[in-house]
Design the sequence.
């Protein structure tokens, strides 16, 4: 199986494939797969081609801006990671678009600035994980959502690029429920982020940031 999956001409991407943890490590470290993101969950792995396109890039940048501006306005400590890797050895690994440690969840010491994958048993689980979906939402709503529930992530957002909407979930006790107001960024309504996504289609970053700052200061 590993030979098939690591062969450049036959690599299986964007689907969950049964594999052992050892097979997953061999595949994820293969040099020909460096332009991918890798996930592992309970005996299955997913090799995901990196998203391309203006929509994904713009929305990724905007959502990071929203979270950071919220932190500034509310004097809330944040530590963000873009395309970071987090794992529990032998069980799970994920490489979400964005992850944030918030407040008391911020690790001390911080994960080293190396290529090493962040071990959640050493540094803790990110408070908030965000996936930006520019095509189908099925995997983000399905298998990835289950993975983040098992990792004990406190909150998970899915950004629907085409629909310009946010699906947000509060997670606890290995389950989740949809929410309209963030619990880890208290008072931040998903409708505010969705309006920012719409404004981002016609306005530049400074204009959107100024609008966001005004709205967040009123919350």
Sequence:
């Amino acid at each position: 199986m590993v030979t098939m999956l690591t062969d450049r001409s036959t690599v299986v991407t964007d689907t969950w494939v049964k594999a052992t943890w050892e097979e997953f490590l061999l595949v994820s470290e293969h040099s020909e797969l460096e332009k991918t993101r890798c996930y592992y969950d309970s005996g299955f792995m997913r090799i995901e081609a990196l998203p391309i396109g203006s929509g994904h890039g713009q929305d990724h940048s905007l959502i990071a801006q929203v979270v950071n501006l919220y932190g500034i306005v509310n004097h809330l400590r944040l530590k963000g990671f873009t395309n970071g890797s987090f794992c529990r050895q032998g069980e799970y690994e994920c490489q979400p678009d964005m992850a944030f440690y918030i407040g008391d969840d911020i690790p001390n010491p911080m994960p080293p600035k190396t290529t090493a994958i962040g071990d959640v048993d050493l540094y803790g689980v990110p408070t908030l994980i965000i996936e930006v979906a520019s095509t189908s939402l099925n995997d983000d709503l399905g298998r990835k959502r289950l993975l983040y529930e098992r990792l004990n992530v406190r909150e998970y957002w899915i950004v629907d690029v085409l629909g310009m909407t946010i699906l947000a979930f509060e997670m606890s006790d290995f389950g989740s429920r949809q929410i309209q107001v963030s619990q880890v960024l208290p008072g931040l309504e998903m409708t505010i982020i969705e309006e920012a996504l719409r404004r981002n289609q016609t306005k530049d970053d400074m204009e959107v940031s100024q609008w966001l700052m005004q709205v967040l200061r009123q919350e």
